[in-house]
Design goal:
There is one protein chain. The chain is α+β, with helices and mostly antiparallel strands. It has 13 helices and nine strands. Strands 1, 2, 3, 4, 5, 6, 7, 8 and 9 form a nine-stranded mixed beta sheet that branches. Helix 6 packs parallel to helix 13. It is globular. The relative contact order is 0.20.
């Protein structure tokens, strides 16, 4: 079971199926928050054998609910320690990326408007009604962006910042797909600013209907504007296919699968032996100082932060 942004090449999937003489069924279950809720509700009678897509913003909740069976994959030997946030190895890191604000380049050029250079800039009147974000209660990018504002403004200042965004007519939607493909002006929507990923511009070039030389979108990467996200996979407790589940986890961390990740999900592999494709690297935007919060701090405060955000933004 995975969130809706999961994708793998047919040949990579088929290689595993042929090696193990099985058919892999991939069940897409909405955004990461919705997917995790489904997994928790089905605890003890899991809807799948493996869950992929819980990130470091939701990790503590998944671990507290004990939905995973520990598995210390041999493949972890080459994975950098910075990505391994679960000492019990229930959740194993698969990929990472930066959640940042993306913008449509042409909009700002056509309107002779400078691209915002900071989170504070988004409160200026010239950017009123131009930004779409995701609801952090239902979307992992949305929660990541909320955490970016908490890391930047502190727990005493982030709500004032969000109140300012509301006053400046920020739009809130439930998931990344709606934000990017419905609300973002690049795809016909009204807003030229959207919360997405630092790796979104390569997607725009590689999958353009007509060949283009440079991406039509850019990324705001100033200090404090992005959040470093890590995604995990784990064996769901109660699986009846433990041996195959272990094999699938091992495969997700192997070089063939890891090298397939960038051009399918536009995030980075955690396996340092996986090579990045040139077309992926060329148009990346990697922030020098992304916001990072300790998972234990997120665990202790997430519910309160979300409640306070909801009361400030949605009521």
């Amino acid at each position: 079971m995975a969130h809706d942004s999961f994708a793998v090449s047919d040949e990579v999937l088929e290689a595993f199926e042929q090696e193990h003489d099985v058919e892999v069924e991939i069940r897409l279950a909405g955004d990461a928050g919705t997917m995790l809720n489904s997994a928790i509700l089905a605890k003890g009678a899991p809807l799948a054998d493996v869950l992929y897509g819980v990130d470091n913003t939701y990790l503590s909740r998944a671990l507290a609910e004990a939905i995973f069976e520990p598995y210390e994959s041999p493949a972890l030997a080459v994975i950098p320690d910075e990505f391994e946030l679960d000492p019990a190895h229930g959740a194993l890191p698969v990929d990472w990326g930066d959640v940042c604000i993306n913008y449509e380049i042409a909009y700002f050029e056509d309107n002779d408007l400078p691209v915002p250079g900071s989170l504070e800039d988004l409160l200026q009147p010239e950017y009123a009604g131009l930004l779409t974000v995701q609801n952090p209660a239902t979307s992992s990018p949305g929660l990541a962006f909320l955490l970016a504002t908490i890391g930047h403004f502190g727990t005493d200042g982030y709500l004032d910042y969000w109140a300012g965004l509301v006053e400046n007519e920020v739009s809130v939607v439930n998931d990344w797909e709606t934000a990017y493909y419905t609300e973002f002006s690049r795809w016909g929507g009204p807003d030229p600013l959207v919360v997405s990923y630092g790796s979104s511009p390569p997607f725009e070039v590689i999958f353009a209907e007509e060949p283009i030389d440079s991406p039509p979108t850019g990324v705001i990467t100033a200090g404090g504007t992005c959040f470093r996200q890590i995604e995990f996979a784990g064996i769901l407790a109660g699986t009846e296919n433990r041996e195959l589940a272990e094999a699938w986890i091992d495969y997700m961390l192997s070089v063939p699968f890891q090298e397939d990740i960038p051009l399918n999900m536009f995030v980075f592999p955690v396996n340092p032996d996986a090579e990045l494709q040139a077309e992926f690297v060329e148009y990346l935007a990697i922030p020098e100082n992304p916001v990072r919060l300790d998972p234990s701090e997120i665990a202790d405060n997430r519910a309160a932060w979300l409640q306070a955000w909801t009361e400030t933004v949605l009521r």
